[in-house]
Design goal:
Methane Monooxygenase Hydroxylase, Chain G, domain 1, 9 helices
């Protein structure tokens, strides 16, 4: 009887060792992907597209490795850390496509689950707000409006996802946060455009008076 217990325990420990080793690889890769995605977004804000593309290519390889290593261990695969990395990667890839005026890649192209991709869409709304404000500071309200329209479209898409949080990893909260960002951006954009029009009208009046 004791021999049977030892053998069973030994097999369990062996499986746990394999699971732990896979988890460590997946966790390390996920942390690297998150860091690479953040650096890619910073590069995109500087409009360094070459650097961003290189960082995201590296992140893609690491994500695929992590997914393959964790595939035999679903409890670890779906524990959350890989989802977070996939979400950050999706955000960076989607933002890259928007600022480069390229088609937005879907979840199949990025090789990530659909829910992670949707969270990436939600996170991108915040990055687009920063882009809108940057364009406004540079005096390019037309470009700012184009980016704001993308923000609106993303929010409209997220509203279509009406499923329990247990299925969408809390996407509803991310959507609500996106709405708040959208409304603040709308107010900033509207105020800037109105001010620009008033300034232009005032300049025309001064010019006409001087003539």
């Amino acid at each position: 009887m004791s021999t049977g217990l030892e053998e069973a325990t030994g097999r369990i420990l062996e499986e746990l060792e394999k699971t732990s080793a896979a988890r460590e690889i997946g966790l390390a890769n996920s942390r690297k992907v998150t860091r690479l995605a953040a650096n890619a977004i910073r590069a995109l804000h500087r409009r360094d597209f070459t650097k961003a593309h290189s960082l995201l290519e590296e992140a893609s390889v690491l994500l695929e490795q992590a997914s393959q290593v964790l595939a035999p261990y679903p409890r670890v695969l779906w524990s959350g850390f890989l989802h977070d990395a996939q979400k950050e990667y999706a955000e960076a890839c989607i933002y890259q496509a928007v600022v480069a005026a390229h088609p937005i890649p879907d979840h199949e192209e990025l090789k990530i689950p659909g829910v992670a991709w949707l969270h990436g869409v939600a996170e991108t709304i915040g990055e687009l707000r920063r882009a809108v404000l940057d364009w406004l500071r540079e005096g390019h309200s037309h470009e700012a409006e184009k980016f704001f329209q993308v923000m609106e479209k993303m929010y409209e898409i997220l509203l279509q996802v009406d499923f329990p949080d247990s299925m969408t990893a809390g996407l509803r909260r991310a959507t609500d946060a996106g709405r708040a960002i959208l409304e603040r951006t709308r107010a900033d954009l509207s105020l800037t455009i109105v001010q620009s029009r008033l300034e232009a009208a005032l300049a025309r009046s001064v010019q006409a008076f001087s003539s």
